[in-house]
Amino acid sequence: MEDVRCIFYGRQKVIQTSWTDANPSKRFLSCPNNGCNQFAWIDPLMCSRAMKIILGLLKKANKLEARLQTRNERERKLWICLVAL
Predict the structure, then answer these.
(1) Which has the closest alpha carbon to 46: 12, 73, 21?
(2) Contact 8, 31 (CB under 8 A)
(3) Is 31 exposed, middle or buried (0-12, 13-18, 19+ CB in 10 A)?
(4) 68, containing H or E segment
(5) How far apart are CA 55 and CA 38, in angstroms?
(6) d(CA 34, CA 32)
(7) Number of other CB atoms surrounding residue 48 within 10 Å
């Protein structure tokens, strides 16, 4: 990829990935300066079916991660109780 620089700050843009509901897993170039809102999409638009599938998988993964965290907290509490005996 060619050297693409921000026109406002002169810094080289970085590739990031959007995980919003409107643009799941879509890559874009953006300025690394947090105050700069300049960006450009890299990936083409996805069909609506692909977006629904990706969003469904993301929601499922988030739900599983939350369940795992809850179980890990319970296990830690049980170990504390067991050691305290």
Answers:
(1) 21
(2) yes
(3) buried
(4) helix 48-84
(5) 25
(6) 6
(7) 8
Distances (CA, A) of 85 to 14, 71, 72, 81, 82: 54, 21, 20, 6, 5
CB 18 within 8 Å of CB 51: no
pTM, to two decimals: 0.54
| Structure confidence by residue, pLDDT tens digits, 27-57 | 998 888 777 878 889 888 888 898 889 889 9
Q: Which of 40, 57, 46 is nearest to 22 (CA)?
A: 46
Per residue in 10-32, pLDDT (tens digit) is: 778 888 898 888 888 889 988 88
Which pair of structure tokens corresponds to residue 10?
């002169």
**Cα(30)–Cα(53) distance, rounded to whole angstroms?**
26
